[in-house]
Amino acid sequence: MHTDLVAALDIGGTKIAGALVDHQGRILARTQRPTPAQENGETVMGAVEAVLAELTASELWPRAGAVGIGSAGPVDRSAGTVSPVNVPGWRAFPLVERVRSATGGLPVELVGDGVAITAAEHWQGAARGHDNALCMVVSTGVGGGLILNGELHPGPTGNSGHIGHISVDLDGDPCPCGARGCVERIASGPNIARRALADGWRPGPDGDTTAAAVATAARAGDPVAAASFARAAQALAAGIAATATLVEVDIAVIGGGVAKAGDVLFDPLRRALRDYATLSFVQRLTVVPASTGTDAGLVGAAAAALRGGSTVDEARRQAV
Ligand SMILES: [Zn+2]
Hints:
The protein has 320 residues and is α/β, with parallel strands linked by helices. It has helices at residues 41-56, 95-102, 113-124, 183-187, 189-198, 211-219, 223-247, 263-276, 296-308, 310-319, and strands at residues 5-11, 15-22, 27-34, 64-71, 75-76, 81-82, 108-112, 133-138, 142-148, 151-152, 251-255, 286-289. It is globular and about 60 Å long.
């Protein structure tokens, strides 16, 4: 049997998605369950197993040669465990071992969700063709991942490129991670909204106080709303410039709900980058919106599986 597919799992705080994906990144079968995020660890695992049961029942399943998992973090790729902040029942939960036994012993590759999105953007999105890239998700939190020398760089634990918790404000506000002035503490959607409200922005009649509502107000000319996005842009620019200076990425790709603000975010971000990315070798750094859609987590998990094990290399050889 040619194993020309991989199984992909995208595990987040609200949903668990699964798919069978071919070597061109096409999704041939898919399923999804809500994440019982506040339940105990076995109940959450039960939802993962329900997703896997649907995949393994597919007539395509015998063609699957590996499993890729992109999970909310932190993850520990070397230990095969996950401890997602938003899933308290899972702390150092042995997800890789459990998924391996639920799939008849297939090789399993685990990465953080930011690394998975990065794999997807490099394979099919805005980072395609770039050998050195930083990809980010800016939404409720801020995550990211790195492509270095043409390869996904997950790092030993699968969290490399987690730009949200780089400090860009030495004496800044305490961050839930324990540090101060992290990119996420300034640039995440909830923090954009919180700062706008604190500085006097008021929502419209619908009472919407999300970052999307702040973006709408900024676009309509509200200076407080625009200033909150400019501050987020400044934090992102400082983090991106630091990353580019360290490892010479030439493109930063930004996805997630906050990136949907468009020019309200990207205009001040590109201006701020000129202030922070100053050395000759980082001046050609560009910043663009992500282009993979809602399936990025699944496609990225599949990409991680494809780059993972020898079984997949064997599958590729067989497929030739
Ligand atoms: Zn932090």
